[in-house]
Design goal:
The chain has about 350 residues and is α/β, with parallel strands linked by helices. It is built from eleven helices and 16 strands.
Length: about 350
């Protein structure tokens, strides 16, 4: 298959742009198109078509028991995808849509069973990106869209990441430059007045609590045996080619970990803040930015994880960050990438 690339960076009147119109036509024809959102690049197909969704699983190499998030552009498409929603869910929509919040709702029969992996519920969000909204509007159907990478790899934050993973596997890529948040959406389930976070993401627990009273973490967030109700709940995710371990301890402990691997003949890469990069010696250093700006660190995480795949390091050691605000999602992704392996100072 030939993969077409369209560049729409800095383009006005997106909905009428020939590239968006062509991409939307292919969505309606049952093909798969990658497109930018404010979180990461998504891999989109008609959420109402089992055969179209099957092409997403095939392109990604994704396990079939992992449900997909459905993206909408307006309230009419919400009614196409969801059978009902509570007053609490509506308050979240009003506060955070368009934006990086996915809400699990009872699904309409029109949504394909392959989209929800057979579940009777569906994750829905309205992205806050002009290209995504223009594409969904032009397609005229809800679009199911997991991250546009091969399953298990770090999510793409630039069009080139998508091309590297999926060239020849999908119909097209809409390239509009770098995404914003750099991590995926927060996924919540709403039952009565209680909001349960199934996956941390671009909207923090504290931000949710500013809108609703009862917000809790899902106990199964790190349990691999559970049937996933949301993407990101199962399997090793976001991992570079080389093994990655997190380091929990002082700067001296971090350096001692690097030195121990080097003494064993390993080439060591480190994934750290600017502050630690200035103090630690290793074979390859990837900077994420200052710890004073954790949002910037989150934005660069996937890009730098992917950058290690172009090096010859044998192991990667990564810094840990406070679990608050965007740090909730940042540490969730780092722990997933590391397979929960942490070197802890005693």
């Amino acid at each position: 298959m030939i993969t077409t690339k369209w560049n729409v960076e800095n383009v006005d009147n997106l909905t009428e742009h020939p590239a968006i119109q062509e991409a939307a036509m292919w969505i309606r024809e049952g093909e798969v198109i990658a497109f930018p959102t404010e979180t990461v690049y998504g891999l989109g197909a008609n959420a109402c078509s089992n055969s179209a969704i099957e092409k997403i699983f095939k392109a990604k190499g994704r396990p079939s028991d992992n449900p997909l998030i459905v993206h909408i552009a307006n309230e009419k498409q919400l009614e196409q995808a969801a059978a009902s929603w509570s007053e609490t869910a509506k308050r979240l929509m009003d506060a955070f849509w368009p934006g990086p919040l996915t809400i699990i709702l009872p699904k309409k029969e029109s949504i394909a069973d392959r989209t929800t992996a057979g579940l009777t519920s569906v994750g829905i969000r309205m992205p806050d990106h002009p290209v995504a909204l223009a594409l969904i509007e032009a397609a005229g159907v809800p679009i199911a869209a997991p991250s546009a990478n091969r399953s298990g790899k770090p999510s793409p934050t630039i069009g080139e990441h998508v091309y590297k993973d999926l060239n020849g596997r999908i119909k097209g890529i809409i390239d509009a430059g770098t995404t914003g948040v750099g991590l995926e959406s927060t996924v919540v389930e709403v039952i009565g007045e209680q909001v349960t976070i199934l996956r941390p993401g671009g909207v923090s627990k504290q931000q949710l609590e500013s809108v609703v009273d009862h917000v809790v973490w899902d106990n199964a967030l790190f349990e691999q045996e559970q049937i996933p109700k949301s993407p990101g709940m199962k399997y090793t995710h976001y991992a570079p080619d080389a093994p990655l371990l997190l380091v929990d301890g002082s700067m001296a402990f971090f350096q001692s970990c690097v030195d121990q691997y080097r003494a064993d003949g390993k080439k060591v890469g480190i994934l750290v803040s600017d502050e630690l990069a200035d103090e630690i010696s290793a074979d390859e250093v990837k900077r994420l930015g200052s710890v004073r700006h954790v949002e910037g660190i989150a934005q660069k995480l996937y890009h730098q994880l992917r950058a290690f795949d172009d090096t010859d390091v044998d192991v990667i050691l990564a810094e840990m960050y406070p679990i608050e605000g965007i740090g909730e999602a940042l540490m969730n992704r780092l722990l997933k990438a590391a397979g929960n392996q942490v070197l802890t100072e005693k």
